[in-house]
Design goal:
The structure is a single chain. It is built from 14 helices and 12 strands. By secondary structure, the protein is α/β, with parallel strands linked by helices. The chain has 2 domains: about 140 residues, 3-Layer(aba) Sandwich (Rossmann fold), CATH 3.40.50.2000; about 190 residues, Rossmann fold, CATH 3.40.50. Strands 3-2-1-4-5-6 form a 6-stranded parallel sheet, with helices on both faces. Strands 9-8-7-10-11-12 form a 6-stranded parallel sheet, with helices on both faces. α4 crosses α5 and α8 packs parallel to α14.
Length: about 350
């Protein structure tokens, strides 16, 4: 499957923040393989800010809405793409819908996995081997690019985001008087209740970080995580009535640029398997990531220095969004076990400072 020399390549990105970051080794590898090509990213509107921190040429955000309006919105977007004279489209998600707009736009080359009834919309279908040695999802995205290019690409899995200077300066101004490490908590999970560790245990880890290392704690999350983050903040206040002086709840108050800047300023992030986990890794901040229903080997943070706390239960990983039994994969992970990993990161970072 030898690629021509395209001038314009469209990348239809995954729908979730974490998956977009997992795809960055493939995106960056494609950039190095085709240095003269223009890379255009088609991505859900809430993720557009991420690609302002990545070396791509054009970001094409979309929000098709629902119902009859969504049909017209897709047709309109397809006409827009057709007028841009795109040479090839790499379709990273597996859904029927993700291939639909490039097909309607009559992009000449359409590369993707022939899943979910969409084979007819692809000019270059790439099968995922049934018995593949690939473990991490990032490897699949790289394979997709390599099969189209016709050879290996320089895919570097330790990706980095370019945090905007204004966002970094804003966070620096907020934390200038803090003379202790900053620890972030990410207790939510946008698309899965099953991935959420217990709120009171997040709180216990936060209080230990403050009592042991004098840490300031920030709680992060998107608009859908506000309630859960509020639970964690309330638990922290009950455990430590003075927490208002060292703990701040930022849930629902940050853009993607702000989130990246805050995580870059942190010593570590304690997190469920979510998009923020991947943002943290991509700005160079180590994570303590708690995995229950999902596989750390398949969707864990990219790069080195992270600590994964993984449950060992007979029913997991199940990839269910809502637990059908007793949520033992998460309830079996104690606050003491997570704290040991956080303590090691804080102590190691302090010793090396």
């Amino acid at each position: 499957m030898n690629a021509p020399h395209p001038q314009r390549v469209l990348l239809r990105m995954p729908n979730w923040l974490g998956d977009c970051i997992i795809a960055l080794p493939a995106v960056n590898g494609l950039r190095r393989a085709l240095p003269g090509a223009e890379l255009l990213v088609m991505v859900r509107a809430p993720m557009a800010g991420l690609f302002e921190m990545v070396a791509v040429d054009t970001v094409l955000p979309f929000d098709f809405g629902a119902g009859l309006r969504s049909v017209g919105a897709r047709m309109s977007f397809a006409r827009r793409l057709h007028g841009m004279h795109i040479d090839a489209a790499l379709i990273l998600p597996n859904s029927f819908d993700s291939a639909l707009v490039p097909w309607l736009a009559r992009v000449p080359v359409r590369v993707g996995r022939p899943a979910n009834g969409r084979r007819f919309m692809l000019t270059h279908p790439v099968e995922r081997p049934a018995h593949s040695t690939m473990r991490h999802q990032a490897e699949w995205y790289v394979r997709l690019v390599e099969k189209w290019i016709g050879g290996p690409i320089d895919a570097r899995y330790d990706v980095r985001l370019n945090v905007p200077a204004a966002a970094a300066a804003s966070v620096a101004a907020r934390t200038r008087e803090w003379d202790a490490p900053v620890v972030a908590l990410n207790p939510g999970a946008t698309n899965s209740v099953a991935k959420c560790w217990m709120s009171d245990r997040f709180a216990r880890v936060a209080v230990r970080a403050h009592e042991t290392h004098g840490a300031h704690v920030v709680i992060i999350g998107g608009p859908g995580d506000v309630a859960r983050c509020g639970e964690v903040a309330a638990h922290i206040e009950r455990l430590s009535p003075s927490s208002a002086s060292w703990c701040e709840d930022l849930a629902g108050k940050t853009t993607l640029h702000d989130l990246a800047a805050w995580l870059q300023a942190c010593r570590c992030l304690v997190t469920n398997d979510t998009g923020a986990m991947h943002v943290s890794a991509a700005v160079g901040t180590p994570v303590v990531a708690i995995f229950g229903p999902t596989s750390g080997a398949a969707t864990g943070p990219l790069g080195e220095g992270h600590r994964l706390v993984v449950s060992r239960v007979d029913c997991g990983p199940c990839d269910e969004r809502t637990c059908r039994t007793d949520h033992r994969c998460m309830t079996s992970i104690t606050a003491e076990r997570v704290w040991a990993e956080v303590d090691a990161l804080l102590g190691g970072a302090a010793a090396g400072a």
